[in-house]
Amino acid sequence: MFSEESFANWSKDYVIFAHITTRIKDQKNDDLLTKVGGPGFPHFVFMDAEGELLATHNGEWATADFTKTATLAKEGSAIKAKAAKGDAAAKIEWFCRQLDQGSISFAEANTKVKSIGKLSAAQQKQVDAALFNLEVNDLGNRVQSEEQAKEAGKKMTEWLKAKKVPTGGALDSFINFTLGYCKEEKDVEGFSLAIALVKEKYGSNEKAKPAIERLEKDLEAMKAEKK
Amino acid sequence: MKCYLTAAAVLLLGGNLLAQSLPAVPTKPKGPSADDLQKKLEDKLAQPFLKKAPWLTDFDKAKAEAKKSNKLLFVYFSRSYAY
C-alpha cells in the first residue's frame, strides 16, 4: 500500500511520519506507541503539530479509510482549539475524547477530572467508565515483577468480585491478570467469574473453544482439590 | 505466580486480536545485542517504501513540518526489533 502511487498522492495533504520502535537503549521517543495507547504493530494515528493524539485509525489500511479517520482528527483538533480558548463544553468534550483514545495517563486524567466542570449524568457515567479502564491498564502496565503481578491480580480479582469490570482493551488485561491470580491462589469463585468474562467475550468464537474448555477443566480440577 | 498468558493468548488469537496487546509479567527481552538492534534499525530505514512518499522518521522534525505546513501528522507505527 505505501509503495503505491495512490498513497503518495493521498499523503500530500499530510505530514507522514513513520515511527519505528527500536528497543535501542535511550532511543528518543521509542515509547511513543505506548503513549498513544497502541496495542501493537502496525498502528496508525493522526496527531497535531504538538504531537497530541487526535484520532486512532481502526479501519481498513486504505487511503479512503484513512481519510475518514483524518476527518475525525480534524474534528478533534477543532475541539481542542476551542477547549484551549476556555470553552467549557469543548473542555469536557476534549477530555472525554482523550479518555476514549487512552491518550491521557490515569494520573493525569484523575487530576483533570476534578477541575473539568459539571458533567451531565451521561458524561459522568462515560468518564467514570473510561477512568476505570485507564486505572486497570495503568495497574497492569506498571507490573515489572512476579510480586507486582500478584498484587495486580489480587486487586483486579477484588474488583471482579465487586462486579466492577472494565471494557475494551482493558478487559483483556483484566482477564489475564484475574485468571493468573485466581489459578495460582486456587480462588474458585474468582476463577469462575473470570471464565464467565472469557465466555462472554470469546464464547461465540469457534477458535476460542479449546481454550475455554481447558479453563473449565482447570476450574473442575480446582473444585475437586478443594473438596 | 504463573501468568495465564498461554490460554489468554490463544483466546486473543482466536478473537483475531493482536497477541502482543496482552500484558503478561514483562520479562527482559532476550535477543539481539545493541549492535544488532542498530543494524535492524538501519535495515528498516532502508526499506523501499520509505522512498516512495515523503516519509519522515524523526518525530521532532515531523512535528516541526506539521506546524510549518499547518497539516496533520499521519503516523504509521512499525518496529525494527524482532526476536
Structural class of chain B: mainly alpha
What pattern of helices and strands is seen along the backbone of chain A? HEHEEHHHHHHHH
- The quaternary state of the protein chains shown equals heterodimer
Task: Note poorly predicted spans of chain B.
Answer: 5-23
Characterize the overall form of chain B.
elongated
What does this structure look like?
The complex is a heterodimer of chains A (227) and B (83). Chain A is mainly alpha-helical and 227 residues long. Helices cover 62% and strands 7% of the residues of chain A. Chain A has 10 helices and 3 strands. Chain A has a two-stranded antiparallel ribbon. The longest helix of chain A has 22 residues, at 63-84. Chain A starts with a helix and ends with a helix. In chain A, 34% of the residues are buried. Chain B has 83 residues and is mainly α. Chain B is built from 4 helices and 1 strand; from the N terminus they run H-H-H-H-E. The chains are: A mainly alpha (227), B mainly alpha (83). Chains A and B meet through strand 1, strand 2, helix 3, helix 7 and helix 8 of A and helix 1, helix 2, helix 3, helix 4 and strand 1 of B.
Give descriptors for this structure.
heterodimer, A: 227 residues, mainly alpha, two-stranded antiparallel sheet, 10 helices, 3 strands, 7% strand, globular, B: 83 residues, elongated
Write the layout of secondary structure elements.
The complex is a heterodimer of chains A (227) and B (83).
Chain A: H1 5-10, E1 15-21, H2 32-35, E2 43-47, E3 53-56, H3 63-84, H4 88-101, H5 106-112, H6 121-141, H7 146-161, H8 169-185, H9 188-202, H10 209-226
Chain B: H1 5-14, H2 34-45, H3 49-52, H4 59-69, E1 73-79
Summarize the structure.
The complex is a heterodimer of chains A (227) and B (83). Chain A is mainly alpha-helical.
